[in-house]
Amino acid sequence: GGKNSKKLSQKCQDKVIAVFDIMDTDKSKSIDKEETLKFWQSNYAKLNTNALFDSVDKNNDGEIQLDEWIEFWQMVKASGYSDEEIEEELDNLLEGGSWVQFDNMPKIHGKGVKKGDQNICSLN
After folding, report:
1. Phi and psi for 64 in degrees, rounded to 5?
2. Which residues contact 116 (CB under 8 A, 6 or more apart)?
3. In this structure, what are the phi and psi dihedrals at residue 65, rounded to the nearest 5 degrees?
4. Contact at 8 Å (CB) between 60 and 54?
5. How many Å apart are CA 11 and CA 43, to the nearest integer?
6. Closest to 20 measured CA to CA, from 7, 79, 28, 4
7. Averaged confidence pLDDT in the chain
8. Which of 12, 18, 35, 85 is the most exposed place for a label (fewest CB within 10 A)?
9. Using CB atoms within 10 A of its CB, is residue 87 exposed (0-12), middle (13-18) or buried (19+)?
10. pLDDT above 60 (res 8)
11. Residue 70, Cβ density class (10 Å: 0-12 exposed, 13-18 middle, ≥19 buried)
């Protein structure tokens, strides 16, 4: 709540940055697809990576900079999700969970999957 309800709380933003740092294995302050493929290490790694880059890589350079990453979560917050929901999603990512698309989010490019659509295998 409060005046900055459209902005991430400090706690939430710290977690956003922490997740970025974990994905950014070479500490270059940007995440590339090789890093996210390693991060997920599962049969869905490629799917998750493509979904992540479709959502977050605004300038489409194949890398996600920290500011793009923070901006993305800021947009999630502004589109109506709470800090708690965002932190939950970040925890899910840390546990190797799938990347989810959020409802009501402006699509940067590509088609999104609705949050809660667990039937991720049917995507092609």
Report:
1. -115, 115
2. 100
3. -85, 160
4. no
5. 32
6. 28
7. 84
8. 18
9. middle
10. yes
11. middle
